[in-house]
Specification:
- This protein has 125 residues and is an all-beta fold.
- It has strands at residues 2-7, 10-13, 18-26, 33-39, 46-51, 58-60, 68-73, 78-83, 92-99, 114-115, 119-124.
- A hairpin with a 6-residue loop joins strand 5 and strand 6 (58-60).
């Protein structure tokens, strides 16, 4: 139905920045509610950010504290996550997700239907 592929992860020093991208293909003729989630070894998957179909409404996890920005370019079927002032505790696999349901935005991973394979973000101290 919808395929999502993340890119942009890598190794960065504490305080540095990364920009993640999530490219969608398949049934993308209508926008989806999108989210970013992350999972570190030994931890549950946790919410990072979400954005509505048009890009005008967003929500973030508290721990981002203004460091992260989610955006989208529907003409390119791509969602972004700009991450600044990265901390070692941000180290995780970051995944994007798409929801076919009717809500505006969602922080709940169970609300999402399609998932990418994830991209590794490693922040060194």
């Amino acid at each position: 139905q919808v395929q999502l592929v993340e890119s942009g992860g890598g190794l960065v020093q504490a305080g540095g920045s990364l920009r993640l991208s999530c490219a969608a293909s398949g049934r993308t003729f209508s926008p989806y509610v999108m989210g970013w989630f992350r999972q570190a070894p030994g931890r549950e998957r946790e919410f990072v950010a979400t954005i509505n179909k048009s890009g005008g409404t967003t929500a973030y996890a508290d721990y981002t504290k203004g460091r992260f920005t989610i955006s989208r370019d529907n003409a390119k079927n791509t969602v972004f996550l700009q991450m600044n002032s990265l901390k070692p505790e941000d180290t995780a696999v970051y995944s994007c997700a798409a929801s076919r349901r009717a809500f505006t935005i969602s922080r709940r991973d169970n609300d999402y239907d399609y998932w990418g394979q994830g991209t590794q973000v490693t922040v060194s101290s």
